[in-house]
Amino acid sequence: MNPAWQQGKLREFCKANGIIVSIYSPLGAAGALWGTKNVLESKVLKEIAESKGKSVAQVALRWAYEQGVVIVTKSFNKGRLQQNLDIFDWKLSDEDNKKIAAIPQARASDGNGYISETGHIKSLEELWDGEI
Ligand SMILES: NC(=O)c1ccc[n+]([C@@H]2O[C@H](COP(=O)([O-])OP(=O)(O)OC[C@H]3O[C@@H](n4cnc5c(N)ncnc54)[C@H](OP(=O)(O)O)[C@@H]3O)[C@@H](O)[C@H]2O)c1
User: Fold this and answer.
1) Helix, strand, coil fractions of the chain, as percent rounded to 5
2) What range(s) does the NADP-dependent oxidoreductase domain occupy (predicted)?
3) Which atom number of ligand 1 is nearest to the Cα of residue 75?
4) Atom 38 (ligand 1): residue with closest C-alpha?
């Protein structure tokens, strides 16, 4: 989950059923097989980041934090690790959140790896809830 794949419907279901959501690739995992540049290169996130004196990554992580999910992010860089932890003493405005909610959405997976004729979920129609 990240600002470019927000999965609000899934999260609403989880909240209603007492399920804590943990998210990986909150920065889009650019460069990974499943990655996208849609987060770190988002024009909307860049504008918000500039207006707040924060980095795009911090805005993406703060947004995820404000959604009440458990964040699993990764960096091999000490400075970026510190930056990613520095998201707790400021917040996004309602206006920021409206802009983030309007970011075009794209799935980070086509889902084919999660279905099997002999498994619990047999088709893509069963896997996805209709929301991108
Ligand atoms: N269980 C699963 O199915 C599953 C699937 C996917 C991922 N994961 C795990 O979840 C964790 C996080 O996901 P992820 O690595 O896919 O994605 P991610 O955290 O969204 O992205 C990590 C990438 O962002 C860069 N980055 C980190 N902080 C940054 C910052 N402040 N500014 C700019 N770039 C920054 C990192 O580069 P640098 O290292 O150069 O900073 C790295 O290339 C990983 O440990 C991964 O193994 C699990």
Assistant:
1) 40, 5, 55
2) 5-103
3) 39
4) 75
CB neighbours of residue 70 within 10 Å: 11
Give the start-to-end residue ranges of the domains of the chain: 8-127
Atom of ligand 1 nearest to the CA of 32: 16
Does 118 contact ligand 1 (Cβ within 6 A)? Answer: no
Is the distance from the beta carbon of residue 83 to the nearest atom of ligand 1 less than 6 Å?
yes
Choose which CATH entry (1.10.10.60, 3.20.20.100, 1.10.520.10, 3.40.50.2300) describes domain 8-127.
Answer: 3.20.20.100
Kindly give the confidence (pLDDT) of every residue in the chain, 132 residues in length, as a single tens digit, with 9 standing for 90 and above. Answer: 999 999 999 999 999 999 999 999 999 999 998 899 999 999 999 999 999 999 999 999 999 999 999 999 999 999 999 999 999 999 999 999 999 999 999 999 999 999 999 999 999 999 998 999
Helical (H) or strand (E) element with 37:
none
